[in-house]
Amino acid sequence: MPSRVVRTAAAAPPPVVPPPAGRGRGGRLSLTRLPERQARVAGVVRSALLGMLALLLAGAVGGDYVGAAVFSLVVPLLGGAACGYAATRGAGRDGAAVPRAVTLAVAAVDGGAAAGFAFHVADTPFGPVGSWLPPVLAGAAGALLWPVVDPAPPVHRPINRSARS
User: Fold this and answer.
1) CA dihedral over 88, 91, 94, 95, signed as positive or negative
2) How far apart are CA 94 and CA 31, in angstroms?
């Protein structure tokens, strides 16, 4: 008895679905290779979080110097520089993905807010603009002047061990 072969349409191969963004081979999460947009957002978030940590510390220290003659401007300036340092380091490894202007804007907001937080820590009412605006501007200026102190973030280059002289 001859076998009867029934021909059907060839089954199409399953569609190739690329892994979700941020996932490497096999669908494993890859923290080293993020798409450019996600790397930029992650860098800004890290920058803001570390800047806010510096904001809290600078505001707590600056609360002791609210109303002092010279130190009411010097301490917010240094606190702003600390916020600038934290924000630029927060951009971290993906620093090339985060625009420098965005990082400095985050730092300037944090530096100015640190001076405002110092007024809150000291339980001093803000009062007229002339009493609180100079320390806030000094904090923002300290954050914006941080690139003068540290012009470029460190670049980590792999060591070439094969080229020995």
Assistant:
1) negative
2) 11
Nearest CA among 148, 144, 59, 151 for reference residue 106 = 144
Where helices occur in the chain by DSSP H, the ranges are 36-62, 71-91, 100-121, 129-144, 146-149
Instruction: Return the residue matching tokens 């890290």.
Output: 46
User: Hey, is 137 helix, strand or coil?
Assistant: helix
Show the tokens assigned to 81. Answer: 């520089």
Give the rounded distance of the alpha carbon of 66 from its chain centre.
28
- Rounded to the nearest 5°, which phi and psi values hold at 88? -70, -35
**Separation of alpha carbons 41 and 12, rounded Å:** 39
> HSE on the CB side for 153, CA within 13 Å?
20
What gap in Å lies between CA 79 and CA 73, rounded to an integer?
Answer: 10
> Cα separation of 136 and 150, whole Å?
22
How many residues in the chain? 165
Interaxial angle between packed helices 36-62 and 100-121, expressed in degrees from 0 to 180 and rounded to the nearest 10: 30
pLDDT, tens only, 38-74: 888 888 999 999 999 999 999 999 988 888 889 989 9
Task: Provide the pLDDT confidence category of residue 135 given band limits of 50, 70 and 90.
Answer: very high
